[in-house]
Design brief:
Shape: globular
Number of strands: 5
Number of helices: 5
Strand content: 5-15%
CATH class of the largest domain: Alpha Beta
Largest sheet: 5 strands, parallel
Length: about 160
Amino acid sequence: MKTTAHGLIWALAVCLFATLTTQAQTSPGKLSGLGKNVIWTPADLVEPAELAASINKPGVTQPVIFNIGAVEDIEGAVHVGAANNAENRKKLNKLAERLPKNRTVVIYCGCCPFGKCPNVAPAFTDLKTLGLTQVKVLDLPVNLKTNWIAKGYPLATVK
């Protein structure tokens, strides 16, 4: 009888922990249903309209923008390439380790919906591990084409 009670208590504790952990990583609405790889919070997101408005705004310190996917470059972005590739992650880390720890860094992929993206989570983790405190993820729930390009937000000019 004691074994059954202990097992039940243990199972309830595991369920409670899993529920609290899931809620801590996601929030109702915006991040729900994005998959188990979501390690950022709503506070770590930057909306496309907000980033687009700040690009080239006089008197505003621009964030460092890293394209960590295989999509078009947003104006001012440094093209790193897909962060699920070890060489590209090394490149990202090398670029980021020179930055002040409190510098705002925005990463984006936009190849596919967040829940399926193989690039954002590894890049976000690496940047946080380097001690950067202002790492933001561009909120592209569908993809770059839908959430940035179709809205006419600035892309890098081809040289």
